[in-house]
Design brief:
6 strands, alpha/beta, globular
Length: 223
């Protein structure tokens, strides 16, 4: 895999006023086809102009002792994403932010004319109430939750889901989400993938292999 510089890994993607941009955060350790498929689903259903994969320097809720460098993860994620509307960036390292609330706050302040939407998997909604200032994050930008195999029930019955229930937008109106004032969120169905970064890492440790984009980039279909 061709290495990239730290500067290239953490640069801010280009934007223009009025753009609709999805923010998809995570460790991406490693990035895989389900990340890509969820992004394509969000691009289509939310009618976004672009989606940014925010490769975090380190997830505050996870053990980061064996986390590859941000340059490695960004370089690999770009190979997996392989799409003109998906920007992979480690810009959180440039912003100096650690939590999602801090990152989104900084982006909204710097780019006030960009219409951001936070995109996350159903597994994250299930634990959203554990996030630092999660209510504040919901008040900053609209949120789109992408269905994930086995996580739908836990997600929709979670503490955060109940707290945000008054602000849930019917899925048929998802295309207007980016124009709505937060708090506003919707649940996007249609994508079911068994892929998990955690399980991929476990398999790598067992087999002693490195991730391969040929294995992780197979197509996933959605309506």
């Amino acid at each position: 895999m061709q290495p990239i510089s730290v500067r290239a890994a953490v640069s801010m993607p280009m934007t223009a006023p009025g753009m609709r941009v999805g923010l998809f955060g995570g460790s991406f350790n490693p990035a895989h086809a389900a990340h890509r498929a969820a992004s394509l689903l969000a691009l289509k259903r939310l009618q976004l102009d672009r989606i940014w994969w925010l490769v975090t320097p380190g997830n505050p809720l996870k053990d980061n002792w064996d986390l590859p460098s941000i340059e490695e993860r960004v370089a690999f994620a770009r190979r997996v994403a392989h799409h003109p509307l998906i920007d992979v960036t480690g810009v959180e390292a440039t912003l100096g932010t650690r939590y999602s609330f801090e990152t989104v706050s900084a982006l909204v302040e710097r780019l006030p004319r960009v219409r951001f939407v936070w995109v996350m998997g159903a597994d994250n909604l299930a634990h959203f109430a554990r996030w630092q200032r999660w209510r504040g994050l919901a008040g900053l930008v609209p949120i789109a939750v992408v269905d994930r195999l086995g996580d739908s029930l836990c997600a929709t019955s979670s503490r955060a889901s109940h707290a945000l229930a008054p602000y849930r937008v019917p899925e048929q109106h998802a295309a207007a989400l980016a124009d709505m004032a937060p708090p506003a969120w919707t649940f996007l169905h249609g994508l079911k993938s068994p892929l998990s970064s955690t399980e991929i890492r476990a398999a790598q440790r067992t087999q002693g292999t490195a991730p391969n984009t040929d294995d992780l980039h197979h197509p996933l279909k959605f309506p």
